[in-house]
Amino acid sequence: MRHLSFTSRRIGVIAVGLALAGGAVACGPKSGDDAKSGSDGKPKQGGTLYVLNNQAQEDFDPARLYTSGGGNVPSLVYRTLTTRNRADGAAGSKVVPDLATTTGEPSKDATVWTYHLKDGLKYEDGSPITTADIKYDIERSFAPELSGGAPYLRDWLEGAADYQGPYKDPKGLSAIETPDAKTIVFHLNKPEGEFPLLATQTSFAPVPKAKDTGTKYAAHPVSSGPYKVISNENNGEHIVLKRNPNWSAATDDQRKAYPDTIDVQSGLDQAVINQRLSAGVGKDADAVTTDTNLGPAELAKVTGDKNLAKRVGTGHFGYTDYIAFNPKVKPFDNIKVREAIAYAVNRTTVINAQGGSSLNEPATTFLPAQASFGYTPYDPFPAGKTGDPAKAKELLKEAGYPNGLTVSLTHDVTKGDEQGPEVATAVQEALKAAGITVKLDGQEHAAFSDKIHTLKTEPGFFLTGWGADWPSGGPFLGPIFDGRQIVDNGANFNNAQLDDASVNSEIDAINKITDLKAAAVRWGALDKKIGEQALTVPLWHPVYKRLFGKNIKNVVISDWTGVLDISQVAVK
Amino acid sequence: MTRFLLRRLFQAAVVLVVLAAVLYACFYLAPGDAARLACGPKCNTAQITQIRGQMGLDDPVYVQFWHFLSGIVAGHDYSTGTDVLHCPAPCLGQSYRTGELVTTMIGQKLPATASLAFGAMVLWLVIGVGTGLLSALRRGTVTERLLTGFTLVGTATPVFITGILLLLVFCSWLQWLPYPSYVPLTEDPQQWAWNLLLAWLALALVEAAKYARLTRSSMLETLAEDHIRTFRAYGVGERAIVVRHALRGALTPVIALSALDLGTMFGGALLTETLFNIPGLGQQLVQSVQIKDVPVVVGIVLVMGLAVVVANAVADVLYAVADRRVVLA
Questions:
Q1: How far is residue A380 from each of residues A506, A521, A529, A534, B195, measured CA to CA in Å?
Q2: Contact list, B275 vs chain A (CB under 8 Å)
Q3: pLDDT value at position A413?
Q4: Where is the composition biased (Basic and acidic residues) (chain A) (predicted)?
Q5: Which residues contact A406 (CB under 8 A, 6 or more apart)?
Q6: A170 CB near a chain B CB, below 8 Å?
Q7: For residue A59, which residues of chain B lie inside 8 Å, CB to CB?
Q8: Between chains, do A58 and B48 touch, taking CB under 8 Å as contact?
């Protein structure tokens, strides 16, 4: 999963936010007509919804998109075999059928998954959607011409590891069978009980082969969802969607599709997005953002302004920011040293360095604090709110460092980044109290990512984060702690280079379980077991707080995405 | 004049090729693997190898650079998977990330950047030269002090502060203008201007200060020169002295500077572009640098380089027109 991306623009945003905080409180625009605002009014069809974003909706090709649960804007255009349940909170972490009639029929050992399509499914041009088209898009996602998508199918499908995509290898993937136009069967090389959750990703959307234009497809994709693409300028910088008359609510109980038009503008400055949504002048009253948190100015303002506070959507996306250790590097081979650092960390100052407690919750578990992940509360090295330097010193003494020690912490130099210098400095300060001198090893953004994810250069002590490809323990614990997922030549995420037979076999055992609730309990227990080895120090789970316009109704925020679902929002 | 132009053209070509070579070398040496970045998170080795082949990154760097140079002269054909994408000369290559042609991408973004740069230049010249002249002619008065203060505040305020204040005042509080969203000049000239107005103003306010100071000092210097004293002695009117004689000499350095500034403006207005929602080259450049999309970076930097080179040549010509002592050779 990708890291949350913060650009260096945030520096400017923060500076301006602080500069304007005072003024904005005193003389902000008058907010009128608040009776209608919020989610109380009954939503109706019609109107135009504006989405104001910072990051462009790049790579709009379903084979290239790397989404969790099919994405927000993409899922308006691409329907998938399964999808996320469009509901508030924990209910929104469930997987439900989309194009398929069920979330999937597994074979006994969960290595074969069969899906049947619903009746009456059509593309925007009225032609029928077939399973061959779903198979075709999955094959496209293997093409090096269309790089960027999620890698799971390459690992999971039988004989797919070296497949080069349909352009170079038109024979296709033999692991996917389409015995008829409405049936599709997946043959996996190992049991995967979470296959239905993977099938929410856009590589499981249909692409008609006759309409495929390769790398140019993203500009005019063929829609299977409630909206079709009218224009896609500059690789997702400005996307205009209009209602697709061939989509039928009768086959789709998830997307509400209230607005007639959806206009997605990106590349906007984050401070400007917040200024516009808070002022709500003209069309901005019908606007939302899906990627910009409240800035310091708005955070200061919402506490005193009830009308504005009503227009803040709060959500949780499964994500953990943490300190990672590489025990192959001394002195981190010594568990007592790792434990000492875990005790010494001051989560309060760390969180303040990252925007404060309203945007971050302290974390002691590696798994996010949500039931669908199997969250099991534990705190093996209770550091309290501000750290326990005395206990840390004691452990250091036991480890053979009675006079403290000097270590270096690798971090990103991008200001405001989750792995940025502010957080690194907060860790440095906290560890000083325990007698640990931290030298900061700041790296430029791309170099940082390269260094920590390459086995040969991986440092012993660094900041990093991990997010959910779907809300379950599998994609959270697997890539980080499964010994067979250590990547020699490429991006390695198993930071601790842990290859523990008991952990590996437990992961295999859980992957066989198709009852997701039962699996979650086992993931939680595994998380606790690994947590006791002090291979990471979980720091915080981010909270999303985003403004929406005055006329926005039916705000639904699931724990799967943490942001308001565009398919549910109405402007009338 | 022809010799001057030919020589300038040759120099420009050399400068641009060297620039491209340096960029290629820098990105080759810089940390970060473009194939890995394009591949996305959690890529396995087989995938990266395939993508590296697809991007032509297996070739040695000088071969890659040679492909790039030959593309400029002869064009290139690329595969979209289902079809062939022809890139006519001058072909600057294909984005690693999206497969789009770099020339197409630049073609889409250049009008916005050019609109921003030229409009801002007109405004900063009007404001800058105007205040500069006024303060030179009203030396020692309250007017001069006020104008000096104004220019000081202008230089001291970074564009992201000026910009966000302008938006807050004109779009949010007074609501005289909508929040800008770029409209191409060819689509609707009036909307184009209204939507760019605040962006021009934000840039102009920062730049104008420099021009005001330059115009003022240069004007005062010229007014103190011997030939002006001679004109005065002959009884030429003060207005004619200022407009017909002094201004001409005083504006020479202003012209040189604005040509240079205009050139750099083609790549350096990133903050203004994001604040005012202008889909220009600056934003694209930063995005592309972050993901090591070398063809796009090289393409945009070449356009910026070209802008500076052309602006310099134009400045030299204008210099000669303004000051007849300068000979172009």
A1: 21, 19, 10, 9, 57
A2: 269, 272
A3: 94
A4: 31-43
A5: A436, A437, A438, A439
A6: no
A7: 97-98
A8: no
Please tell me if residue A323 touches chain B, with a CB cutoff of 8 Å: no
CB contact under 8 A, A215 and B80: yes
Q: How far is B203 from chain A (nearest CA, A)?
A: 16
Backbone angles phi and psi of A82, in degrees to 5:
-125, 170
Q: Which two tokens stand for residue B285?
A: 């450049």
Q: What are the residue ranges of CATH 1.10.3720.10 in chain B?
A: 110-328
Interface touch B45/A488, C-beta < 8 Å: yes
pLDDT at B252 over 90: no
Q: Which residues of A touch B45 (CB under 8 A)?
A: 487-490
Shortest distance, CA B282 to any CA of chain A (angstroms): 11
Q: Compute the average pLDDT of residues A224-233.
A: 96
Alpha helices in chain B (DSSP H): 2-29, 34-39, 45-55, 61-74, 102-137, 142-156, 159-167, 189-223, 226-234, 238-240, 247-268, 270-275, 281-290, 294-322
A 474-493 near B (Cβ less than 8 A): 479, 487-491, 493
What's the pLDDT at B324?
A: 66
**pLDDT tens for residues B269-319?**
888 888 898 888 988 888 888 778 888 999 998 888 888 888 888 888 877
Give pLDDT, residue A19: 34
Q: Which one of A162, A201, A235 makes the best mutation probe of the B interface by having the most chain B beta carbons within 10 Å?
A: A235
- Candidates A16, A146, A445; nearest CB to B160: A16
Q: By CB neighbour count within 10 A (0-12 exposed, 13-18 middle, 19+ buried), where does B283 fall?
A: buried
Query: Does residue B176 register a pLDDT over 50?
Result: yes
pTM over 0.90: no
B80, A284: Cβ pair inside 8 Å?
A: no
Amino acid at residue number A174: S
Query: Which pLDDT does position A36 carry in this prediction?
Result: 39
Residue A331's pLDDT is: 95
For chain A, give the mean pLDDT.
90
Taking only the tens place, the pLDDT of each residue in A44-73 is: 999 999 999 998 898 899 999 998 999 999
Does B38 sit within 8 Å of A234, measured CB to CB? no
Segment B121-152, tens digit of pLDDT: 999 999 989 888 888 888 888 888 888 888 78
Q: What percent of chain A has pLDDT over 90?
A: 80
Closest CA to A235 of B105, B92, B84, B269: B105
Question: From CA A480, how far away is CA A492, in angstroms rounded?
Answer: 9
B268 vs A464: CA distance, rounded Å: 32
CATH of B110-328, one of 3.30.565.10, 1.10.10.10, 1.20.58.630, 1.10.3720.10: 1.10.3720.10
Tell me the H-state helices in A234-295.
Answer: 270-279
Which domains can be identified in chain A, with CATH numbers?
48-262+552-568 (3.40.190.10), 319-543 (3.10.105.10)
Whether the complex's predicted ipTM surpasses the cut of 0.90: no
CB contact under 8 Å between B44 and A12, yes or no, is no
C-alpha triplet A177, A178, A181: angle, nearest 5°: 175
